[in-house]
């Protein structure tokens, strides 16, 4: 590492310490923003000496969880790494992770860089990190005011991965027609993962599904089965484009509510009978992606399985917190596809549900909240005992719940998420469970309040 880069690394550490001492956050973005503005080549110069190179994880849903799964697997395999585990996934967040976690002689103590990357930032991240592996989990409609339409985003991603060297590996979700199309005609190696069972197939494609047409000819796709959203076993009846055969796949899945699932997984390196301690089919995809990355890095299947079965969810992603004899379960939901899967899991729980829906419209959430009308709240009809609508756009959420006719006996509105949690927890009997379903910044607000009360640690310390 160049002397100038080492100096900026130390300078960034000082900036981060000042931010934390001032109580202005965890220094997860600001130090990197400052250092990159003054030294634009900081990230590539710091990363240039890593023995195993870099892994980038991107997609609309599941980036944080998938990257956290890979990080735990690498830890089990005794591979030291640098990882933006707080979810700060712009280039400033990657630079800040390097600043905070790296010693001056990074290459002596770290072998690999593992970075969750915002979908729109992938081209820049590829240019600056020269990754060994890129994983794209899925593409769903999310924050149209920032990302634009999915086809435009996929086109930019395709152009960026075309720059990958033949020695690099691109890992794609075979069940997402838009994502799988990115893998065509590339010079790098392409690996696919997916779910090869229709055990939990939906009766028809959801009305909120995004990528319903063939990316090659524009014809509406036909499906053998739907997993959720536009994911499933698809084929174009006109040009013949179809779901590629996955290299890593779940042959069978048995969902066990919010506890997790049992899966039979097939890989080129061997088969796994695996307990996944995370709920829903969307987390099965996260695990499959993490397995594909880990196998590409040469990790043994046994080490991978052991790590996954002991995994604990990243902050706000099915996070379980004990509060005054009650259990609070926080489940991030930030777009129609993800929200529908949360509702799918909630609808299978016996007994009346106590739920907070917290909707914000900050920049990180997306200013346009009209997407809530594509969420199938109707599937919770007759399932809810109490519901509180919270967040900046609490009234918008309350209107949507009212139109969904969920038959909830109690519908309250409390914009302040802290007071909403207090009210619902107080109204629930001992040993009861409260479900908090927030958008991104509402989740951060909720955790900040819980942290001040000592129920959780600040996310940058976990």
Index terms:
single chain, 462 residues, alpha/beta, UDP-N-acetylmuramoyl-L-alanine:D-glutamate ligase, Protein-Tyrosine Phosphatase, Chain A, 2 domains, six-stranded mixed beta sheet
Walkthrough of the structure:
By secondary structure, the chain is of the alpha/beta class. The chain has 2 domains: 3-309, Mur-like, catalytic domain (UDP-N-acetylmuramoyl-L-alanine:D-glutamate ligase); 317-461, Alpha-Beta Complex (Protein-Tyrosine Phosphatase, Chain A). It is 35% helix and 22% strand. It contains 16 helices and 17 strands. The chain has helices at residues 3-21, 30-38, 42-47, 63-76, 91-101, 106-109, 122-129, 144-147, 150-161, 177-181, 281-296, 301-309, 336-346, 394-404, 417-427, 440-452; strands at residues 54-58, 81-83, 112-116, 133-136, 169-173, 189-195, 222-228, 231-235, 248-256, 260-267, 270-276, 317-323, 326-331, 353-358, 384-390, 410-413, 433-438. A 9-stranded mixed beta sheet has the order 2-3-1-4-5-6-9-10-11, with helices on both faces. It has a 6-stranded mixed beta sheet with strand order 12-13-17-14-15-16. Helix 14 (394-404) links the parallel strand 15 and strand 16. Helix 2 (30-38) packs across helix 5 (91-101) and helix 4 (63-76) packs across helix 11 (281-296).
